[in-house]
């Protein structure tokens, strides 16, 4: 025979189960939205808007094994959203156009953990100014983390004269890629970290990292 205490305990247990299911479903929805947006973001020009709100820290980083020093190391190939290596002719020199890229995984393919999303842009080589890390540019290419340093949204749009600058759609922070992605508008507290890139000499002249990101990615 059940008592009032038993009934209360059963109701509480069911409530706990319902809460946990809701929480898990919410987390899965957020993760699914993020990766769906990433799939659509790998294009030259303007990109899909991707917010990272609702994802916990491990989901945003992609797991404890990844940080700004391990995503790319010297020689890591830069690949597009489909995992294809990016060649030196992917973006016309001096165009200022950009594309979303990722580090290549061991064994091939794009490492699409959230903090790995990277903006590759190509201007004229002589257009760059300090504080750009000039020895991290090559034949007009430079690369920056796409994770906003304000609150972690994905920097996905262009703005300014000739769409020169990167724009974060969440709170309109603006970064100038010709000056080390320094902040030129909005609330972001620091530049987008630069990824040093070079051109592999042999073979198809692929874009490669020449080292890791220069600084922590996203919100410090
Ligand atoms: S998250 Fe980019 S401006 Fe706020």
Automatic annotation (TrEMBL):
Cofactor dependence: [2Fe-2S] cluster
Single GO cellular component term: membrane
Molecular function, one GO term: metal ion binding
Gene3D superfamilies for this protein: Rieske [2Fe-2S] iron-sulphur domain (2.102.10.10)
Transmembrane segments: 34-55
Residue ranges of the region described as Disordered: 1-24
Top-level taxon of origin: Archaea
Nuclease recorded as keyword: no
Matching InterPro entries: Rieske_2Fe-2S, Rieske_2Fe-2S_sf, Rieske_Fe-S_prot, Rieske_Fe-S_prot_C
Rieske domain: residues covered: 112-206
Segments forming a coiled coil: none
Keywords of this entry: 2Fe-2S, Disulfide bond, Iron, Iron-sulfur, Membrane, Metal-binding, Transmembrane, Transmembrane helix
Cross-referenced PANTHER family: CYTOCHROME B-C1 COMPLEX SUBUNIT RIESKE, MITOCHONDRIAL
Full protein name: Rieske domain-containing protein
Species this protein is from: Halarchaeum salinum
